[in-house]
Specification:
Length: 287
C-alpha cells in the first residue's frame, strides 16, 4: 500500500527531471563538446547520454534510447568514440552541467542551503532505484557522485530520470507502441515534442510520421486530424500509470514529506531556470 498521494512520484519527477534535461538545450554543451572533438549536435547527444555505458555500438544506443532512427544513430556511433573516449565525455558532461546551472540559476542558488538539501533528498530517493532491466540507470548508478551540491543534484536527477525512463520504455513496449508511434501519440497529448523538432532531431522522415499516424488511426487511437481518441487517451494514460508503478520505489523510500519538499525545491529551481531561457519554446506542442 502506497504512503504517497496519487501521482506524487510523477509530480516530483516532472519537477526534478527538467533541470537535468536543460543541459541538452544549453550553448555550453556545444562549446564543451567541440573542445573534445565532437561538434555534431546528434553525435554530442548520443555521446552525452551513452557515455556511462562505455564505448558501445549503435545497437545498444538505439535499444536504450528507443525513439531514435537507427540509421541516425549508426551515422555517429561508434565513430564518436574515436573523437572522444567515454571518460572524456563524462568529464565534459559535468563541465556542461556546472556552467549551465551556474548561468541559469545564478551562483547564489547554486551555493544555497536549499540546493544542498535538494541534492541530499534526490540522492536519498535514488538509493531505492533498482538496476535490473534498467540499463541506462544501472550504468549511471556506477558513476561517482560529484562533491559539489549542484552537481550532486544534477547527478541524482540523472539517476531518477534514467530509472523512470527505462521503466517508461518497458511500458511503451507493453502497450504496443513502436518508436514513431510513441512519439506521435505523445505529441497528440499536447505534452510531447513538436513534430518539426522530432523530425529534426530523431532522424525520422515525414513519411515515417505519417505512416505511424496511419497505424494509430487503424487501431482506433488517433483521429483523422491527429487528436487522440478516447481509446488513445486511455492507452497513453495507462502507459504513464504503468511507468508510475515501476518507478514508485524511489519516492516511497523518500517518504511523503521528503517527496513534497523535493518537489517544492525542484519547482523553485525549474521556474528560475525557465525564466532564464532554459528551454526553447519551439520544442514542444502539436504544431
Amino acid at each position: 500500500m502506497s504512503t504517497l498521494a496519487p501521482r506524487a512520484g510523477r509530480r516530483c519527477h516532472n519537477a526534478v527531471n527538467p533541470l537535468h534535461s536543460c543541459v541538452f538545450f544549453s550553448p555550453d554543451l556545444g562549446t564543451e563538446f567541440a573542445g573534445i572533438g565532437i561538434d555534431d549536435p546528434s553525435a554530442a547527444y548520443f555521446a552525452f547520454r551513452a557515455a556511462a555505458l562505455g564505448a558501445v555500438g549503435p545497437g545498444t544506443v538505439t535499444s536504450t534510447f528507443y525513439n531514435f532512427n537507427h540509421e541516425l544513430v549508426a551515422r555517429h556511433v561508434p565513430a564518436v568514440w574515436d573523437a572522444a573516449t567515454p571518460e572524456a565525455v563524462l568529464g565534459a558532461r559535468l563541465r556542461v552541467a556546472d556552467a549551465t546551472l551556474g548561468r541559469l540559476l545564478g551562483e547564489e542558488i547554486v551555493a544555497s542551503p536549499e540546493m544542498a538539501e535538494a541534492a541530499e533528498l534526490a540522492l536519498r530517493a535514488a538509493e531505492a532505484c533498482t538496476r535490473h532491466a534498467r540499463p541506462l540507470y544501472a550504468a549511471h548508478a556506477d558513476l561517482p557522485v560529484p562533491e559539489e551540491p549542484h552537481l550532486a543534484y544534477w547527478h541524482a536527477a540523472t539517476l531518477l530520470r534514467e530509472h523512470r525512463g527505462d521503466a517508461h520504455l518497458a511500458a511503451l513496449l507493453a502497450a504496443g507502441l513502436d518508436p514513431v508511434e510513441a512519439l506521435v501519440s505523445h505529441t497528440a497529448t499536447g505534452k510531447g515534442m513538436a513534430p518539426r523538432w522530432i523530425l529534426a532531431t530523431r532522424g525520422w522522415r515525414r513519411t515515417d510520421w505519417d505512416a505511424a499516424s496511419h497505424r494509430l488511426r487503424e487501431r482506433g487511437l488517433l483521429t483523422g486530424d491527429g487528436e487522440l481518441t478516447e481509446a488513445g487517451s486511455a492507452l497513453r494514460a495507462g502507459v504513464e500509470e504503468a511507468t508510475d508503478r515501476m518507478d514508485a520505489a524511489p519516492y516511497e523510500h523518500l517518504g511523503a514529506a521528503g517527496v513534497e519538499r523535493l518537489t517544492e525545491l525542484a519547482r523553485g529551481f525549474l521556474f528560475t531556470a525557465a525564466a532564464a531561457g532554459a528551454f526553447p519554446e519551439s520544442a514542444t506542442g502539436k504544431g
